[in-house]
């Protein structure tokens, strides 16, 4: 489940701050990671030995998992690394769907509905790693359960990411005189899910910083 190259999200148990990193190596009960990047500042951080962490990752089967860990050491070399304690298999737990991070966000998205022969650009209402809600132009009415393709623009601190995603229409809805659609992403890669999760975390941090987070 854990493998070299897998992207992890670390949460400091004391401060709640979040960081991203990748697994560089795994040896017995040790996970070697590159130096983490603070999701809020986009800068490298230096974690203290003994620091407790919650570690999140998404498996190849698109299932989010979490385990508890701590920094146990450092390795200096051509590529400096931190060493985390590896969990026992029974200590790696699935994150329930209600824990999926969903944030309000107005993102540019281009949609193609092959079955209806429709194409349009739209703006998202909200997004999570599992899907998004979009507001549609008045002349665009796809069918429920229709599948399609999306080009989503994600503005991350490190720069823009353009994701090509498959989706299915879960339902259509009306809100404030606007018609929208709830879309479920299909067959997303671990890297695509991590980009979306990273965007959601960055948005949460931004809202918290502005004092608007509930």
From TrEMBL:
Pfam families: PilZ, PilZNR. Transmembrane segments: none annotated. It comes from the Bacteria. One of its GO terms (molecular function) is cyclic-di-GMP binding. The keyword Ribonucleoprotein does not apply. Residues 96-202 form the PilZ domain. The keyword rRNA processing does not apply. Keywords: Cell projection, Cilium, Flagellum. This is Flagellar brake domain-containing protein.
């Amino acid at each position: 489940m854990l493998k070299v190259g897998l992207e992890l999200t670390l949460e400091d148990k004391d401060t709640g701050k979040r960081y991203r990193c990748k697994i560089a190596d795994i040896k017995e009960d040790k996970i070697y990671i590159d130096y983490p990047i603070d999701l809020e500042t986009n800068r490298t951080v230096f974690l203290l030995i003994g620091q407790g962490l919650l570690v999140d990752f998404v498996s190849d089967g698109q299932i989010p998992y979490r385990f508890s860990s701590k920094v146990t050491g450092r390795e200096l070399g051509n590529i400096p690394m931190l060493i985390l304690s590896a969990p026992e298999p029974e200590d790696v737990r699935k994150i329930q769907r209600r824990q999926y991070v969903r944030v309000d966000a107005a993102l540019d998205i281009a949609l193609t509905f092959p079955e209806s022969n429709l194409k349009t650009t739209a703006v998202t209402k909200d997004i999570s790693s599992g899907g998004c809600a979009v507001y549609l132009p008045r002349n665009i009415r796809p069918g429920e359960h229709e599948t399609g393709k999306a080009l989503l623009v994600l503005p991350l601190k490190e720069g823009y990411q353009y994701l090509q995603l498959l989706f299915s229409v879960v339902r259509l809805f009306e809100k404030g005189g606007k018609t929208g659609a709830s879309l479920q992403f299909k067959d997303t890669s671990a890297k695509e899910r991590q980009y979306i999760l990273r965007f959601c975390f960055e948005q949460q941090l931004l809202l918290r910083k502005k004092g608007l987070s509930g």
